[in-house]
Amino acid sequence: MIAYFRRDFISYFKTPIGYIVLGIVALIGGFYLANGIGYGYVNIIEEIYFIQNTLFLVIPLITMRLLSEEKKNGTDVLMHVSPISLNRVVIAKYFSALALFSIICCIIVFHAVVAYSIGATITADTFGFFVSFFFIGSVYLSIGILASALTENQIISAISCLTVIFFSQFIPVLAGQIKSFTFSFMSSFNIFGLSSANTYKIASRLEKIILWFDPYSKFDSYYAGIVTLSPIIFSISIIFVFLFITYRVIEKRRWSQK
Amino acid sequence: MIEVSKLVKYYGEKKAVNSISFHVNQGEILGFLGPNGAGKSTVMNILTGYLSATSGRVSVGGYDILEKPLDAKKCIGYLPELPPLFLDMTVSEYLDFICRIKGVEPKSRKKHAANVMSMVNILNVNNRMIKNLSKGYRQRVGIAQALIGDPPIIILDEPTIGLDPRQIIEIRTLINSLRGKRTILISTHILTEVQAMCDRVVIINNGKIVAEDTPVNLSKRLNGPHKIVVGFQSDNPDIYSFLQNIPGINSVFPVRNVEQEQYFEVVADEQSDPRVAIFEMACQFALPIIECRSPELSMEDIYLKVVDSDPVKGRQSK
Amino acid sequence: MNIRKKIAKMYTDHLIRLSSRDERTRAIKRYSIISVLVVITFLIIFNVLFSIITDDRIRVDLSPNQMAKLTPYSKELISSLDQDVRIIGLFDKPNDLSQSIHQFFVPLLEDYEKNSGGKITVEYIDPSLRPGIYLEIDPSGNETFLPGTYVIVVGASYRIINPDDCIVMRNSYLPLYNNVEPMFTGTIVQMAQSKELRKIYFLSGHREASHTMLDTVLSFSGFATEELDLYLKESVPEDCQLIFVNAPLEDISAKEAQILIDYLRGGGKIIFSFDYSTSSAKFDNINLLMAEMNVKFTNSIVAEYNSNYLFNVSERFIFKSSIVREFTDIKSDNLVVGYSRGLEILDSLDTSSTVTAVITSSPNSRLIEGEVQSEEGARNIALYITKPTSNGEAKLFVMGTAYFTSDNYLSEAGINDINSLFIKKVTQFMYGEEQTDLVGSKPFPNYQLNPMPTIREQSYWSVMLMSIIPLAFLLSGMIVYLKRKNK
Known about the structure:
The complex is a heterotrimer. By secondary structure, chain A is an all-alpha fold. Chain A folds into two domains: 2-169 and 214-256, no CATH class; 173-209. Chain A is 83% helix and 1% strand. Chain A contains twelve helices and one strand. Chain B is of the alpha/beta class. Helices cover 33% and strands 29% of the residues of chain B. Chain B is built from eleven helices and 14 strands. Chain B has helices spanning 40-48, 69-74, 91-101, 109-119, 135-147, 165-177, 191-197, 215-222, 239-245, 275-284, 299-308; strands at residues 2-11, 14-24, 29-33, 55-60, 63-64, 76-79, 153-157, 183-188, 200-205, 208-213, 227-233, 249-258, 261-268, 289-293. Mean pLDDT of chain B is 82; it is low at 311-318. Chain C has four domains: 1-55; 64-195, 3-Layer(aba) Sandwich (Glutaredoxin); 200-443, 3-Layer(aba) Sandwich (Rossmann fold), CATH 3.40.50; 457-487. In chain C, α7 links the parallel β8 (198-203) and β9 (223-228). The model of chain C has no long low-confidence stretch (mean pLDDT 81). Classes of the chains: A mainly alpha, B alpha/beta, C alpha+beta. Chains A and C meet through α2, α6, α8, α9 and α11 of A and α2, β1 and α12 of C.
């Protein structure tokens, strides 16, 4: 397990990809921070938000090679025939990506230190934002690793990961749309003979259920400065589900008869 | 060491492996013969746990591959058809990684890797990137990978493919040097390779075992020293009957008749060697012998012969 | 662990037994899919249970100045409401709070709901989906509701709260103070508690400035206002605690002046504000009243000549004040003063009264009256005068400007502008309240760099952050790539 973690993590730095990822984030964050210094107004929260909005471009770069490349080069045989269990390989690979992502987080911490040293205010809720950033990034990584397990082509893997992450950011919008659609649909046909208030209740209930699965909405309270445990538990659960599916997908190659 | 019973593997509707059973004894080198698509690689992949069988059982080193996959995999060093090489690593980085996943003691890792590298003669490239290596070197790195961790069972899928003749001899020597110490399963196209290395041969076709014997027996059974091609420089039309009249010769087939050269294939009795008799006959009729040889059967020849006697003809139709 | 192993063993045994075509594969496939479903179901149940059990009680409030939390005083106030309160957000609850102003409301309103003992309910209703909601709140149908606002409904009455009014902004983009809590608590307490409100009389009859905005501001502190016409009266009402004279454009009558002087002599309290006008109206009677407290207002106007205090260099009559003393913790440079008459202290040696300059202009300002310009010097904008009487202290708070009280200014700046906070505190002080405010406003963190980086620092950091560090990463990537490429 450590062997795979070590290999994949070091491989980020033996190929240009790790440096490119870090360079991009340093540039995006640095752009924001330098701009802020120019205006004399620096809020690290906004920088974190700024970087979080570009994660859908960065995360696929981190995860695209992890499993697709192995399949393409035939090295996936190693993880099947070596005396290590497959789920550990998946976890090791995930953690190697997470380690790179942690370095990205370190860049943000570095920027915060720079900002502080030149007189910026860093409020306590920055920490909450940082935590939510870390966990949302971690969830993205697990999506990326699944995308990379599904294909042999790292470009396809990257694009599908990017698409999923990008559109996952619109779950709240989608939920709102579904709500209004359900409401107007149900009230115009009024099949069940419900009052408008009840129909509305059903529609909002539906929206709530969809939103329950949305990591962003879970972290809502973090943006207001309230740090609670349940969003973190939820993120870890999502990560676990994606890694488990990834493991099953890889294992499928063993018994699939295609 | 390896027990395979009633192994079946389907790919969709196609039956790639059809109820194969065989075993490999400890210290034995078993050759696995068969044309492309015969199911060799599939069987090997199932043995190593890379694929799972549709049905049937495989036990490796005493462990069932389904029940105790990790224990079974610990016994195996495997070189698949496409060597599993990380192209972005150097040879020594790669072998170090393999040492780690195979659980080689941290202290002896370096020494062990160096040992294996010298066995397959790749010490001179240990700091090169794998993607910059030639096919031959890559193949040898792949073999090194299979040898790491000193597994008691080594499974090599076409180990000499892509190597030049000198390298092939090196690999053969290497495999021969492991004889008795490891149980080895090799798949190959080349009969001479089998003859040079293997204690026993299994030939499969269309997912079925069509022959299983020692190479000597196989060769004898399919070819034997009693079959000779002989050529004369003469336009004497009676040579055919002269040959037929030699005692011990069962049948004679004219092979070629070019200008003044005539060639015949002679099949003799099991026990007799007709070559002296043929020489004497030639002296008697003053026929200069320009060639006398046992025809060497290629893999294809043997395979064709085996297939001809195979009751299941061709691939399964839909 | 043992059970897991047992199950695994049973499973593999089962697989081995399966021998006919496809059976084993199907079994594995089934197992694979079911295991994924089981994991997902388990985690959903676990998460639901977790959030139900902990109910997010394990929480750390990191919001600046605990903005997302009710202050204990608010909690106390709303814990004993007499009536049920319905808070309705007239919009779809935004799914991404971080991008909307409602991030300052939603968590706080949750807290209201939690701490009210069931008296307060919070709903978010999108009027486009439920147009009936307007009539539900206001059956008469006369009110124009704006989507995106909050409505507090108690019984048949309701109050609309515009979110923008709850956030005090500087220069209309920098959030300065968060007044969500005082706004809501104040309104709720007013509407749902049958406690009698404290009264402030506003003098009327002399073309005073209208004060509806000021009413709202004061209502958050639990004040009600009432007009007071002294023309036909002999004295101020018995229950009068504080009289507000809001920028009259006409002089009061001599009789009124006398009533007010009597009132002061009896220990009365008056807040006086003036508005500058170029008209030649004389204010002799008002100055008579002022003279009682040893001050005088003039027809001059304060002009600020220090550009640091000006918002706009070409407008010298609107500027930031420089000193605010004794009354509040509000920083002086945030108060906006405009068109202020000069206030003079009549006799600085008079020891019967104590005059405190509360707001002044900068030492570089001048008084202008017609063509006459005074020397440079700090000018009084607001004065606080006390004078001992036989019946307690007489108190007068006089402002040369209407920028703290008039609707004209307050409606432009918003009722939670810093000026209105100031006048609210002044009123509370003058009324003689122990508790200066029901619920204080919470200042936003100031993200402005302090000190402002020099141009050199700015360019140093922009080169460093935008070029050198990212390039260092990319370059080392390139070096590694080139180094290993041909190895």
